[in-house]
Fold this sequence. Notes:
Elements: H1 5-35, H2 38-64, H3 84-111, H4 115-145, H5 149-159
Bound molecules: magnesium ion.
Magnesium ion binds at residues 18, 21, 51, 54, 98.
Amino acid sequence: MKLNKTVETILNKQINAEFWSANVYLSMSAWFEKQGLSGMAGWMRAQYQEENSHALKLYDYVIERGGEVKLAAIDAVQTEWKSVLDVFEDTLKHECKVTEMINNCYEVALSEKDHATAIMLHWFIEEQVEEESNVQTILDKIALVGEKTKSLYLLDKELGARQA
Ligand code: MG
């Protein structure tokens, strides 16, 4: 069954949001590079790649269902932050916003009785639980060790161990 227009529209919106997410993380990565925190920059860069892969996963799905992918302009992203904590607080806010968008896609799929899309979105719903939890863990660590130079140095090393 071909994708209906309502579902197609919301999925195209989500493709755009995932690319926007990718840019948010790449911008955060650049900010960390500027601070000399290459481990955190690497963590954000891995996140950037993950978001790109989310966009492409939806892109492939729309095509597989006979829908039309329509790419649109991507919103500008923030480029400056006050501190490391500020970046990760923004990251959590950002992921909560993405979760809301995914949940909205799911509700549209259900109301349109598009079960295949709803099932496809299960993966994204689970992924969002993981994303929020990962960021919360980092925020908990910052709360624990503080933002002194030595603490940030160690946290930078730890986050730098993440592989894309
Ligand atoms: Mg995503």
